[in-house]
Amino acid sequence: MTLTTPTRRSGTTGITAPGAPADTPQGDSARSARSARSARSARFTRDADALAVASFVLGLVGLLVMNILLGPAAIVMAGIALARSTARRGRALLGLALGIADLVILAFLVTGDGTVGWNFGG
Question: Where are the beta strands (DSSP E) in the chain?
């Protein structure tokens, strides 16, 4: 003789409230799809925040060295961060402004010296 216990899912009464997700495979898949979307949007927001900070740092460092490379990189990163609706919008805008300032400084130095390189000496 084998004893079996009936399996019972907690919270299931067979009656669902209007608008509540049904306790069916379709309801479970909808819940998992929502959680996947929220995890993906959280990842994009985190990535956009990191891009905003990176554009600010690259723009700032680009004022001193390698502005021919770091200026455009800061501009592109700030643009992507702003397009992804970053929470650090101010940092992204500062990175954009600093990237543009890098290119403006490079343009002044190139027109003054006729070379792309510059130094702190005299």
Answer: none
